[in-house]
Amino acid sequence: MRCKEVNSLMEGYLKGQLDGNTQLRVEEHLGACTKCQHNFVIHKSLKELANEEASGYTDNPFFASRVISRIEARKIPSHIDFRTRLIGYAAVAAALAIGLFIGNQLGTLGSKVISTNTNAEMLAEDYIPSGTETIYEYDFEELQNLNEK
User: Fold this and answer.
1) Would you tell me how many other CB atoms lie within 10 Å of the CB of residue 50?
2) Straight-line distance from the first to the last Cα atom of the chain, in angstroms, rounded to the nearest whole number
3) 84 burial class (0-12, 13-18, 19+ CB within 10 angstroms)?
4) Taking burial as the number of CB atoms within 10 A of a residue's CB, which of 70, 95, 128, 148 is the most buried?
5) What's the CA angle centered on 81, arms 77 and 87, to 5 degrees?
């Protein structure tokens, strides 16, 4: 057996929980390995010390109920959680509505600019002779020369 295996079985060996063959193999290793003997003495001493200390304490039958009552006292009531969630959902809905409103207004603003340009083009067609296809092809200098004469 290796030291690592013996150390992993040390607790079971001290409690007498190992089967006969495994217990013999651990004892053989402990007889041959001084490092594991030292670890065994430490484990055995700690176990005895813990058993001595544990015997001085008695179980408190009301401990569990006190812990549970303290946990319940610190719980947040569920209606607060519901209200908090409801406020969060309302805030998201309000932000969405405001975003849609602003987007709609920006879209309307763009269509107003387009309609203004359309009105300007219609107005320009009244004053520009129809021989030109668009107002951009019209020679304004020629019109100015005609007005000066």
Assistant:
1) 10
2) 122
3) exposed
4) 128
5) 140
Identify which has the larger pLDDT, 28 or 71.
28
- Measured distance CA(104)–CA(93) in Å, rounded: 16
Tokens of 54: 């544990």
Q: How far apart are CA 35 and CA 43, in angstroms?
A: 12
Q: Distances in Å between the alpha carbon of 88 and those of 46, 83, 94, 101, 126?
A: 55, 9, 10, 20, 58
- Residue 18, token pair as written in the block: 């190992």
Q: Which residues, 6 or more positions from 22, have their beta carbon under 8 angstroms from its beta carbon?
A: 9
pLDDT top residue among 27 and 71: 27
Average pLDDT over residues 71-96: 80
Name the average pLDDT for the chain: 77
pLDDT at 67: 85
